[in-house]
Amino acid sequence: MSKRLETENKAKRARGTGMIYQPSNSKFLWLKYYDDGVCHRESSRTADSQKAEKMLRQRLGQIEGGTFTGHQVERTRISDLGEDYLLDYKVSGKRAYVWAERRWRKYLFAHFGQMRARQLSTNDLNEYVTHRQSQGAANASINRELACLKRAFNLGYRSTPRKVPFVPAFPRLAESAPRTGFVTDKEYTQLIAHNPPVWLRGMLALGYNFGFRRGELLTMRVSQIDLLGSTIRLDRGTTKNGEPRLVSFEGLADVELLLRELVKGKDSGAYLFCRDGQQIVEFRVDWYALCVNAGLGQLLCPTCSKPVGSEHDCEPCAKHWDLHKLKYVGLFFHDLRRSAARNLVRAGVPERVAMTITGHKTRSVFDRYNIVSEDDLKQAAQKIARSRSTSAQVGHTDGHSSEEDVKPMPSKSM
Questions:
Q1: What pTM did the predictor assign?
Q2: How far is 358 from 218, CA to CA, in rounded Å?
Q3: What is the rounded CA–CA span in Å between residue 69 and residue 285?
Q4: Residue where one domain finishes, among candidates 123, 158, 193
Q5: Which run of H or of E encompasses 38?
Q6: Buried b (16+ CB within 10 A) or exposed e, 224-260
Q7: pLDDT in tens, 325-354
Q8: Structural domain includes residue 268
Q9: 98 with 139, same domain?
Q10: How many CA atoms lie less than 13 Å away from 129 in the CB half-sphere?
């Protein structure tokens, strides 16, 4: 073959050409085409020559239009995207890996299974929403699950080479407004007055004063407490946003006493909050019991929504319930974090410093915690009243006005 003919063939292959052929060991017709000099072969999955030609024209059109992503994209399954999604969590060192894996395995993979990624449509996503709603899942939970799937598709679309040709449109459900409850000083005193165990008193104090998250408290170790420097250190990677924090408890005598009690006799690597020498991993039952005893919460029958007795018996239903099946209404531990943000601002702490203490990265999220209550509005009105002079108040006179002081407006002559 002459060099000229060889050069022409290379140029032809680079421009995007193809052919249809049938291997001796296949019942289907196969496609062979070039993209920028790279040869691609794939089965048309049909013995119909017209269908095979149509598929070849589609591939060549994708090459000409610059949208060709390779026929491997056709084989990518949603389960493959899920594995890449979980791997991204591991590589990034995200603390929510366990949460993400559980959601993916239990809900998304269980529903979509081995579906090919290219087949996923908005209708499929709406069917998933309907399925989860029939299981009693809240809209917020479904949105989080769809966010996992959308993240997996975005990772596949941005990968090199691409693993999905496009990212479908994902629905987003309306969610309930975020909780606005918080703990007042009086309620905090009520909780402490019911003498919870020292570990729970410590969690109360740190949550109410500094807004520590539940997960940050449960994983806190003795080495993070500096009694001499009166500081608590959260290392990088141990917080929700991954950023380290340093909080001072200087001058807070009750917090210092509790921390001294909590670190007593423990090694530096031991967990700060323990029960019978074991790390506390769940304290929901303890929290519910404390709030109910303090009159700040109730346990309700899941059938009739009436309060149950101390033995978890519902008189209207004549039924005894296990604690974990009862519905709880009242204060939640996370309300302490919201209260801390609010109290810091009202104590005059600059918002930038308050956000550093509570670990809020964005102002928008912090503002959701910095709640304005009815008492705040009353105090604002009182401050306005005090700032105004007596004579400036509407309808008030100094007691010395006379008819001479009130002169009629001159009338215009006709």
A1: 0.59
A2: 16
A3: 53
A4: 158
A5: strand 38-43
A6: bbeeeebebbbeeebbeeeeebebebeeeeebeebbe
A7: 888 999 999 999 989 988 888 888 888 888
A8: no
A9: yes
A10: 17
d(CA 337, CA 212) in angstroms, rounded, equals 6
pLDDT of res. 402: 46
With 0-12 CB in 10 A as exposed, 13-18 as middle and 19+ as buried, what is 124?
A: middle
55: containing domain? 3-68
Q: Which helix (H) or strand (E) holds 274?
A: strand 274-275
CA distance 129 to 10: 51
User: Do 108 and 45 fall within a single domain?
Assistant: no
- What pLDDT is recorded for position 1? 45
CA triplet 402, 408, 411: central angle to 5 degrees?
170
Boundary (domain end) residue, out of 68, 86, 115: 68
Got the DSSP string for 212-256? Answer: --HHHHHT-BGGGEETTTTEEEE-TTSSTTS--EEEE-TT-HHHH
Distance CA 21, CA 32 (A): 8
Mean pLDDT, residues 233-256 taken together: 86
Burial of 351 per CB tally in 10 Å (0-12, 13-18, 19+):
middle
